[in-house]
Structure formats: C-alpha cells, structure tokens
Design goal:
CATH architecture: Alpha-Beta Complex
Order of helices and strands: EEEHEEHEEEEEEH
Distance between the termini: 50 Å
Pfam family, one: Oxidored_molyb
Low-confidence stretches: 10-14
Protein name: Sulfite oxidase-like oxidoreductase
Helix content: under 10%
CATH superfamily: Oxidoreductase, molybdopterin-binding domain
Shape: globular
Strand content: 25-35%
Largest sheet: 6 strands, mixed
Mean pLDDT: 91
Number of helices: 3
Organism: Micromonospora cathayae
InterPro entries: OxRdtase_Mopterin-bd_dom, OxRdtase_Mopterin-bd_sf
C-alpha cells in the first residue's frame, strides 16, 4: 500500500534561478563607481595587510601572481538590484594572504586606490569566501571593473567587493567605510535585503 494517495502529484519546480529578494537578472556587467576610475600600473601596485599592532605584510604584483591561484565561479548581487549568475574569476584566496598573520581582530577595513573603503567582519574574508581577484572571464580584470585587482566577496552585496583594492587593516572594533558612513548597511547580506542601515 502506498503512502501517497493515487492521483496526487507535486508541483514542478520552477526553472528560474533563485535570486535574492528585490533583485533582477542581467546578462550585462554594469559599471558603477563612486568616483573616477584609478589607473594603477601593475609595476607600482601592492597589497598590504596591516594587523592591529601595525605589523604589515606586503605583496607586489609579481609576488601576488606567484601565490596559489583559484578560479571561483560565483553569483554576484549589486545593491542597485541587478544580479549576475555564474561569473568566473581568477585570484588569490584571502585565506592564503591571511595565513600566518598573528591577529585577534574581528573586523577588517578594506582600502582601495582612489580612497574608497568598506568594512567587513574578518570571518567573511576567511574559509574560502573571499579573494583578491585579478582576472574575469579568462582575461585580466578591466580597470572599470576594479582592475588590476579587486576584492571579491560574493556572498555580500557587491559594494563590499571593493574595486582597485590596495590593502586590508585588521581591527578589534568595526569601523564603517565609505558607503556605510553614507547610510548603507554595515553588513550587506543580499538574501536579507540589508541595503541600508536599519534593514
């Protein structure tokens, strides 16, 4: 004897991709910036991790390229409501860059060439969740998309994936960045629609 009554059928699942609330799918890669696009030559580029005590670890472009590389394929979600699925990147995991850094910090403030900053819990940069990305779709990352390198934190709204990244300062306490000071959410989870303070 069956558990399900004869003639009972489930509803077929939708073939549409699951998007965070309020988002729409785009085939494009829109370019949004808070100011002019910095043009940073790779021979002058560096990335610096600064611990709470002021200790620094630095990488030149050549040193970054010599580190183990990863090719994450991820969905990205902009606070302006577009989502792009299955984007392909190349870069270095923050796990690699933070390995061996002696810290008890709980937060990070990301700095970019051009002066942009954004804040994140340090836990959101670890465990395979974030990269310093220098390639997109098999090519070097274009300047308008944050090249030569940008932060990639795909589980948060895309303003947290700071373009033209140049360093991360580790902090004991949270410190808001550029958009967070202007009223955007401190965390920015697209699945909880954390667009603005109070969301």
């Amino acid at each position: 004897m069956g558990i399900v009554s004869p003639g009972f059928q489930g509803r077929p699942r939708s073939a549409a991709p699951a998007l965070p609330p309020g988002q729409y799918l785009t085939p494009d890669f829109p370019v949004l910036s808070a100011g002019p696009t910095p043009r940073v030559p790779t021979d002058g580029w560096e990335f610096v991790v600064t611990a709470e005590d002021g200790t620094e670890r630095r990488w030149t472009w050549a040193e970054l390229m010599a580190l183990p590389q990863e090719t994450p394929t991820v969905d990205i979600h902009c606070v302006t409501r577009w989502s792009k699925l299955g984007t392909s990147w190349q870069g270095v995991s923050l796990d690699t860059l933070l390995a061996g850094v002696d810290t008890t910090a709980r937060y990070a403030l990301v700095h970019s060439y051009g002066g942009y900053t954004t804040n994140l819990p340090l836990a959101d940069l670890r465990d395979g969740r974030a990269w310093v990305a220098h390639g997109y779709d098999g090519r070097p990352l274009a300047a308008e998309h944050g090249g030569p390198a940008r932060l990639l934190v795909p589980h948060l709204y895309f303003w947290k994936s700071a373009k033209w990244v140049r360093g991360i300062r580790l902090l004991a306490d949270d410190r808001p960045g550029f958009w967070e000071t202007a009223g955007y959410h401190d965390y920015g989870d697209p699945w909880r629609e954390q667009r603005y303070q109070g969301d």
